Every structure is written in structure tokens, then in C-alpha cells.
């Protein structure tokens, strides 16, 4: 294990306990098994350095800094309930360690059971995979990322922490067929749509949890007369992640003529992103006002071999629109 683990073991343990108490008090952790995982997996091992945004660029904090004040800032930040920028390239954030309380909510929403096989899309630092390993065991967890530097770093962090899931370098939009079938798929990067390549890699009854359009979509996989189908609602919470790389990019949207106050509304921005390419912004605004500012959990997504679509309240209509391009993730 790394020297920084031994050096910071005691203060890090105290910081983890404080972080868990805060997440529990806020309602983000209720499952004792996940509480133990967050109490025992050392997050600081997965972020030996990270970047803090400053005017004009980023400042790096790291565990081996010779300045004890900066080392203390690094450790305190490692257990702060916020996202940490862990990889920046040409001024662009390409990888991060997610906010722990959001990770806790996502892992609980994943609804794992003993013996489940889980595929994680987006290896990041390896911390989320370590939490999954703590809960399910190393052999039940696969994590994949398109960037070799990220997977090598995640593998090293996981080894230092004593976990050995399968770490794969590849396009997460295509899943990981050689490790299928899976009972759960969790993505830790924002998707433009749900890759249909994931569906045949899931067992019937599997659950998919992924960031989509600043929200978290929770899908249940089933078989019916249309073949393999995944369908479900968004969770109520917001979620902002680094975009998926290797698959389709998250589309940008030019918006004109919509009142600024609406563009600053988090829920309306969610609707705009979800309907990008399908509804004109003014149509989206009309829907928003007509339906009395619907929250995220009123929206849902259906994915099948014929394509995928988003909907409000009911997958059968009346408010249904196409989501993404046919064949996403099946190149």
C-alpha cells in the first residue's frame, strides 16, 4: 500500500466517519451495507492528487506536497462532499471523482442484491468500483473506460486499496459483452441516450442507472413481444457528470427567444436537454407551463430494438418524443 495511506490513516478514518454522518443525516445513506462501504473504503487513496479551479486555470493539490498546510488541504478536500477534478487535459476536465453523497444515492438506487454482477461505465478514479467491490466482491464488478491512462490509474488505486475488480479499456457505449450477462449497469458519465448495445448484455429483470439530461434514469430490463426492452422513470434528484467519451457526444443546443429566467431554472434546463432535437425550445416552454413545471420524476425513457423515446407521465402518450439516434452504441 502507498505511503500516503499509512501516513494519513488516522485522520482519514476520522474524516470518513464525519462524511458518512453528514450523508446519513441528509438522507443519502440508509442501507447499512452501503454505510459500511463508505466508512471503510479510503477515498483519499483514489485521489492522491486533484485539481481545484481557480481564476485562469487549476491548482493541483496532492498527498506528497512538502507544505504541511497544503497536504492538510488535500486531505480535507478528499473527504469534502463535492466532486473533485482528477484529470484535466488542455484546460478541459476529462475525469473526476463524483460527489460522495450523489454516489451514495446512486448506489442505493441501483438496488443491488448479493451475487449480482455489475458493469460500471466510466472507471474514473476507481473509487466507485471499490465501493461496489466492498458490497458485492471483486469478482462481481467490471469497470470500463475508453482512456488507457484512466483505467491504468484506476487499477493502481484499486490495488493499493486492496480491491481487484475487472478493469477494462474500451468503449463503454458498447458495454462489455465478454463479461456479460449483467444484473446491473451503472454509468458515472452523462449520456446523450441509452446505448441499445447494453440491453442484450443484461439479464431479464436487470436494472440500468445512468445520468441523462442532468437527471438519473432508472430502467428495468424485460422481455416482451417487441424483444428486449428497458423502461423506467427518472429519479427526482439532479445529476451533473463529465460526458461519455468514445460513444456519441452529448449534443449542444442553441437557444434563442426563451426568457433568461427560464434558462436559469434547473428543471426547465432538464426538459430542454431531454427534448433536444425533438422539440423546439418554445414548444418545450409551452409544455412546461401547461404541465405546471413537471419535476424530473414525472419523465421517463423507453429503450427497445426499434429505438428509444422519452415521455412525460405515460410511455403511451400523449407527450412522447424520440431520444437520440437509432443504433446509438451499436456501431
General description of the model:
The chain has 331 residues and is of the alpha/beta class. It has a domain at 3-170: Vaccinia Virus protein VP39 (Rossmann fold, 3-Layer(aba) Sandwich). Helices cover 31% and strands 27% of the residues. The chain is built from nine helices and 14 strands. The protein has a ten-stranded mixed sheet with strand order 7-6-5-8-9-10-11-12-13-14. The longest helix is centred in the first third of the chain and has 23 residues, at 3-25. It is globular. The termini are far apart.
Write the layout of secondary structure elements.
Layout: H1 3-25, H2 32-40, E1 49-54, E2 57-62, H3 68-78, E3 84-89, E4 92-97, H4 100-110, E5 118-121, H5 127-136, E6 141-145, H6 148-161, E7 166-169, E8 182-187, E9 202-212, E10 215-224, E11 227-238, H7 260-263, H8 266-274, H9 281-290, E12 299-304, E13 307-312, E14 320-322
Parallel strand pairs: 5-6, 5-8, 6-7, 8-9
Antiparallel strand pairs: 1-2, 3-4, 9-10, 10-11, 11-12, 12-13, 13-14
Helix pairs in contact: 1-2, 2-5
Beta-strand content estimate:
25-35%
CATH class of the domain at 3-170, anyone? Alpha Beta
Largest sheet: 10 strands, mixed
Give the beta-strand count.
14
CATH architecture annotation name of the domain at 3-170: 3-Layer(aba) Sandwich
Basic shape: globular
Task: Give helix and strand order, one letter per element, not per position.
Answer: HHEEHEEHEHEHEEEEEHHHEEE
- The termini sit apart by 41 Å
Helix content: 25-40%
CATH superfamily label of the domain at 3-170: Vaccinia Virus protein VP39
Q: How many alpha or pi helices? A: 9
- Radius of gyration computed on alpha carbons: 20 Å
Helix/strand-derived category reads alpha/beta
Q: Could you tell me the mean pLDDT? A: 89
Low-confidence stretches: 247-253, 326-331
Strand order of the largest sheet: 7-6-5-8-9-10-11-12-13-14
* The CATH topology of the domain at 3-170: Rossmann fold
Amino acid at each position: 500500500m502507498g505511503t500516503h495511506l499509512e501516513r494519513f490513516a488516522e485522520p482519514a478514518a476520522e474524516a470518513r466517519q464525519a462524511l458518512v454522518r453528514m450523508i446519513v443525516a441528509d438522507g443519502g445513506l440508509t442501507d447499512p451495507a452501503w454505510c459500511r462501504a463508505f466508512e471503510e473504503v479510503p477515498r483519499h487513496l483514489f485521489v492522491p492528487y486533484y485539481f481545484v479551479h481557480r481564476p485562469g486555470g487549476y491548482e493541483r493539490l496532492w498527498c506528497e506536497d512538502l507544505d504541511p498546510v497544503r497536504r492538510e488541504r488535500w486531505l480535507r478536500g478528499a473527504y469534502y462532499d463535492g466532486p473533485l477534478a482528477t484529470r484535466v487535459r488542455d484546460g478541459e476536465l476529462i475525469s473526476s471523482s463524483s460527489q460522495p453523497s450523489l454516489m451514495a444515492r446512486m448506489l442505493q438506487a441501483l438496488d443491488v442484491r448479493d451475487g449480482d454482477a455489475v458493469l460500471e461505465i466510466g472507471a474514473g478514479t476507481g473509487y466507485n468500483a471499490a465501493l461496489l467491490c466492498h458490497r458485492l466482491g471483486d469478482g462481481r464488478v467490471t469497470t470500463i473506460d475508453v482512456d488507457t491512462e484512466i483505467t491504468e490509474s484506476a487499477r493502481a488505486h484499486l490495488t493499493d486499496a486492496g480491491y481487484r475488480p475487472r478493469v477494462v479499456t474500451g468503449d463503454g457505449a458498447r458495454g462489455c459483452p465478454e463479461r456479460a450477462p449483467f444484473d446491473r449497469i451503472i454509468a458515472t458519465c452523462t449520456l446523450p441516450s441509452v446505448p441499445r448495445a447494453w440491453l442484450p448484455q443484461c439479464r431479464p429483470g436487470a436494472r440500468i442507472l445512468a445520468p441523462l439530461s442532468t437527471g438519473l434514469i432508472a430502467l428495468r430490463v424485460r422481455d416482451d413481444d417487441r424483444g428486449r426492452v428497458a423502461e423506467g422513470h427518472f429519479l427526482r434528484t439532479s445529476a451533473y457528470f463529465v460526458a461519455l467519451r468514445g460513444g456519441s457526444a452529448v449534443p449542444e443546443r442553441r437557444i434563442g427567444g426563451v426568457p433568461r429566467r427560464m434558462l436559469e431554472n434547473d428543471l426547465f434546463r432538464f426538459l430542454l436537454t431531454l427534448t433536444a432535437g425533438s422539440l423546439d425550445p418554445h414548444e418545450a416552454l409551452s409544455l412546461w407551463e401547461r404541465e405546471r413545471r413537471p419535476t424530473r420524476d414525472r419523465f421517463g425513457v423507453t429503450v427497445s430494438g426499434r429505438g428509444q423515446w422519452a415521455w412525460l407521465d405515460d410511455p403511451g402518450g400523449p407527450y412522447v418524443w424520440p431520444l437520440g439516434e437509432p443504433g446509438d452504441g451499436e456501431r
